[in-house]
Amino acid sequence: MKTILLEGGSLAQRDRAMELLGAAFHFPAWRGRNLDALCDCLWELSQPTTLEIQNHNQTAVSPFGSRLLQALEQCAAENPRFSLILR
User: Fold this and answer.
1) Mean pLDDT in runs of 10 for the chain (87 residues)?
2) In degrees, to the nearest 5, what angle opens at C-alpha 10 toward C-alphas 7 and 15?
3) Threshold 0.90, pTM exceeds
4) Do 53 and 17 meet the contact criterion of CB atoms below 8 Å apart?
5) Class of residue 30 by CB neighbours under 10 A (exposed 0-12, middle 13-18, buried 19+)
6) Cβ atoms < 10 Å from Cβ of 36
7) Which of 8, 24, 40, 68 has its CA 20 to 30 A from that of 31?
8) What is the pLDDT of residue 29?
9) According to the 3-state scheme, what is the secondary structure of 9-73?
10) Crossing angle of helices 63-78/14-25, nearest 10°?
């Protein structure tokens, strides 16, 4: 199983979050930079992967960050190859 660790404060703003998540998961450059595209890419994971977000409360302080966490939680609930740990 692969584990990706990201800092919550860096995921509060859309552009930075999409950049970091794309790089961490090695998503293709042509992917969309929105939450629907993120969830679509997570379905394409070839191996079980856990995303651990440290200080996730720093993500939730922004409207985008709150929506991002909700989307990631939904993806983790529906996708057997993706899991999420919020610390």
Assistant:
1) 97 96 93 93 96 97 98 97 98
2) 140
3) yes
4) no
5) exposed
6) 9
7) 8
8) 85
9) HHHCCHHHHHHHHHHHHCCCCCCCCCHHHHHHHHHCCCCCEEEEEECHHHCCCCHHHHHHHHHHH
10) 30
